[in-house]
Amino acid sequence: MPRGNRDASSGNLKHSMRDNYTEHGVDEYYKKVGASYRNPHFPGVKACINVWLNRWWRMRQPHIEAKKFMVFDMACGSGEATAAVLEWWRDGRDAYSARQSRRGEDSDSDPGTAVSPSRSRLPPPIAPDMPVPCIIAADPYTTQAFHTRTHLYAHPLSFRDIAEGKLPEIASKPVGAPKPNNPPESPSPEGSVRGHSPSKSSISTAATLEANIIEMVICSFALHLIEKPSELFALLWELSLKSRWLVILAPHKRPEIKDGWGWCKWDVETWSECRMTDSVGELLEERVHCRVYRSLNV
Fold first, then answer.
1. Positions of the region Disordered (predicted)?
2. Which of 11, 83, 168, 296 has the most CB atoms around its CB within 10 Å?
């Protein structure tokens, strides 16, 4: 799941990804750099996710159910999207605490006044009774890099695995960890984190999570690498049966997602459906493009 140009200083071999792929091949290249992988576009990724989450929170917050705020970091790399989501959440909790501490001390602020563009990028105050994001993550190459950065665990699932119905477990526990009150059935968690094959019990299927709709799937700098439209359709259709939102981050506007694939394109500004070919409502932050889609099947 390659993700665009990389800086050699970040442990990703050559600066030119085209040269890397030509010399090593995609699979072999990511086997070499999987543990040290970093995406230098993180500032743009984070900015896009912040703007999206602020808008999403404003429109969806009344509908969020306790313990059901699930985020799937698909092709998670070293956890750029996960880090952005969790940092946004922590900043929102801090904003709530700061607002509570100021309550009664400053009566000059008017909640009805317009919010400046700079403040609109700040996370909203998030009350303690709102659910914490539940992260699930997958990448066939970079599970170690993800764990190093986030201290969470990702599954080595490929796009094809996900298209066939497999989903990762919650990222807060080790891959392959035994179920509560059950004896261990797999090698050590560290073995799975390093890319070893997980046990059957560690991979959830759609049946396991059928009662838990994923609130959003975030795919950063990877989805455009699926070359065959039939494979892209299979993946997106499967995701549309399990998740509400699809957030695609890329250095350009690929891949092309077509009508009939289980999704409609979403105008983030007007919070309404738009045509697949429209550019309105897309986000662009520090040369990172962000497009959002709404499932038609959940």
1. 98-126, 171-201
2. 168
Query: Left if phi > 0, otherwise alpha if psi is -120 to 50, otherwise beta: which for 109?
Result: beta
**DSSP assignment letter at 116:** P
69 in any annotated domain: yes
pLDDT tens by residue, the chain, 298 residues: 444 443 333 444 445 545 665 555 555 555 555 455 556 678 999 999 999 999 999 999 888 866 678 999 999 999 999 999 999 999 999 999 999 888 756 544 444 444 444 556 788 999 988 888 999 999 999 999 999 999 999 999 999 999 999 999 888 766 555 554 543 333 333 333 333 344 454 555 544 444 579 999 999 989 988 989 999 999 999 999 999 999 999 988 889 999 999 999 999 999 999 999 998 889 999 889 999 999 999 9
pTM for the full model?
A: 0.77
Q: In this structure, what CATH number is given to the domain that contains residue 58? A: 3.40.50
Structural domain that includes position 170:
39-100+118-295
Q: Is residue 111 part of a domain?
A: no
Please state the domain count of the chain. Answer: 1
